[in-house]
Structures are given as C-alpha cells and as structure tokens.
Amino acid sequence: MNLIGAPLNRAVLSIFTEYLRDRSMMELVHKEYGLIGKVVRKFSKSDGEAIDLLQGTALGSLEPQALTTLAASLNQAEGMNLPRVETRIGAPVLQVVPLAIFV
Fold first, then answer.
1. Which of 3, 41, 48, 51 has the fewest beta carbons under 10 Å from its own?
2. What is the model's pTM?
C-alpha cells in the first residue's frame, strides 16, 4: 500500500459482518479484493502508538498479562493451521473505514 509516496505495511479495516455478502468472510480471507475507504487515522513510527484490535470487545477487558499468555498459547498450538495471533498492530499502520469492497 502506498499513500502519497510513503510506503506502509499494514491497514486495519473495521468491517461489520451484517453488511457482507458472505458472513463467513472467506471471500475476503482467500482472495484479492478492491477497497474504497476513508483513512480515519494514520500511525507513524515516531508516534509509538498502536491499534488495539480488542478495544470495545469482551476480551478487551482482560488484563494485558492474561492476553499475552492466551496469545502465546495459541501461537504455539500444534496440529492447527492458525495465523499468528496479534492483539495490537503497531506503526506504521492506517485505520480505514471501508465504503465499498469489490470481490
């Protein structure tokens, strides 16, 4: 992703499943897609901030140590094909509100 000449590695999208055609989100996970959206926040490395993926959820109320232990356990699980569990996305990152997603 490139925004005005500044390379960025990640973008975080807030998507509500009730607005998706495929509520399992398998279309988004396993395909390339186009997105029209509005950037609502930009975090640069100098900010030192991160986007908390659990903010506003039931798991967001857990103590940081409990979340660290849970994530470490899931990351070390054998026999399961799970992506790496992350609860915070550090800079450089954009927070985007999607307006349209084209599959």
1. 48
2. 0.69
Residue 4 is predicted with a pLDDT of 53
User: In the predicted model, what is the mean pLDDT of residues 36-60?
Assistant: 88
Question: CA 3, CA 86: separation in Å to the nearest integer?
Answer: 24
pLDDT of residue 40: 93
The DSSP secondary structure of 36-96, one letter per residue, reads EEEEEEEE-TTT--EEETTTTSSGGGS-HHHHHHHHHHHHT-SS---PPP-SEEESSEEEE
Burial class from Cβ neighbours inside 10 Å (0-12, 13-18, 19+) for residue 94 reads buried
